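User: Hello! I'm new to structural biology and keep hearing that structure can be predicted from sequence alone. Could you demonstrate with Major facilitator superfamily (MFS) profile domain-containing protein? Please show me the input and the output so I can see what each looks like.

Assistant: Of course. The first part below is the input, the amino acid sequence of Major facilitator superfamily (MFS) profile domain-containing protein. The second part is the output, the predicted structure written as tokens.
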Amino acid sequence: MINQGMISLTLSAVLPQLRPPPCKENQVCQEANSGQLAILYISLLLTAIGSGGIRPCVVAFGADQFDERDPEQKTKTWNFFNWYYFSMGVSILVAVTVIVYIQDNIGWGWGLGIPAVAMLLSIIVFVFGYPLYRNLNPSGSPFTRLLQVIVAAFRKRNLKMVSNDTVLYENEELDAAISSTGILIHTKQLSFLDRAAIASEEDFETKTSSPNLWRLSTVHRVEELKSVIRMGPVWASGILLITAYAQQNTFSLQQARTMDRHLTNSFQIPPGSMSVFTIVTMLVTISVYDRILIKIARKYTGLDRGISFLHRMGIGFVISVLATFVAGFVEVKRKSVARAYGLTDNKDTVIPISVFWLVPQYALHGIAEAFMSIGHLEFFYDQAPESMRSTAAALFWTAISAGNYCSSLLVSLVHKYSAKVGGTDGESSNWLPDDNINKGKLEYFYWLITLLQVINLAYYVICAKFYTFKPIQVRLKDQETGEALQDQTKQGIELVRLY
């Protein structure tokens, strides 16, 4: 579907009947008609739907190629997340440099056509290579199973809780298709859901049949729902980081437009290309982390992955707080130079301050993303029920979407309420004026985001401290005897699987 959308976009840029005619000098540009707009919107819709299907599935599918029951392969799963995000960063870097250059200097037909051809080639390679992959067959809808647990628990809401957890219903044969790695072990949290696993005679239609899953669920299925619920607070903590990150494509861009962007007398950096500093820093951080930092941390922690994903996310949150805090002081410096040269009222005049003052905030956001975003992906993949890993990966992209929506909401609120406060020294009362950023108070906005991130960091620390890791009875491969079942306690699981 994504390739269909990209092909449609390419055709809309190449075929004259699918786009408005080129603008001529001293003439008003002709707007696109309804049919041309429809083609554009449908193309973007197909691309968006296709991306929504590919992104969460490709990361889970790639990680599934490593067998978690094999001790040698299990440690490579976490390297995969680093290099998956690295390859994605490289593709973004190529897109914002090479592809953008082609679009601006050669034409939009070539600029859109090259990615469409590349996507088509990737599909062909995937189809021919499919037999080589390790495939896990789907076993029904995981959402149906979650709903069955909720319904069963509600139906038995008046039952008295059992004092002995071992009498709760378990059926490994029934759960075999959704638990190839291992069976989830009962936990004490969210105990009201345990009622769904209290067996009674009426839960079975006959003595030999499987139970009515709308009345009785296994412990494994109850723990699947608990795992999803426990991930919610940690998922929510990632939204505000994306809210802060989104400002790079809005107000940081406006700052760059007002600053001296010359590298040489004849060449200056386009404002939109400043994101290159974020991407490059992110790529360097991922490389250093995977090749050097993990080995150093491993000596002190004894963990195969160096540090846990919860610690990795926490480091990303701290660096993101520093990024927006620094951005506020850079804006203070930029405006002070504008006042010194009497350029506060001249929105179209370049302020004599180098655009490289913005590099620290861009770079810090790149470092934060390398820690937090990859840690977030690892968290979702590891803590999600085995049958819901692609769905859990979709939560990562959902957090990104929610963060961008929150950014728009925050900007709207600041526009609305800051305009009610009187301005001083010739500055606008609106922190984020549309006409002249020099007369606003963008630094206040950055520091507001910093404050919100500090609160979010405290919230995350609480969530991480009280988070209950997914306990599982793992089936480990034994090269001599085939497969051996290894019983692990909850604490052992935290050390072996998570760290």
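User: So the tokens describe the shape?

Assistant: Right, they're a compact way of writing down the 3D structure. Reading them back into a model, for example: The two ends are 38 Å apart (CA to CA).
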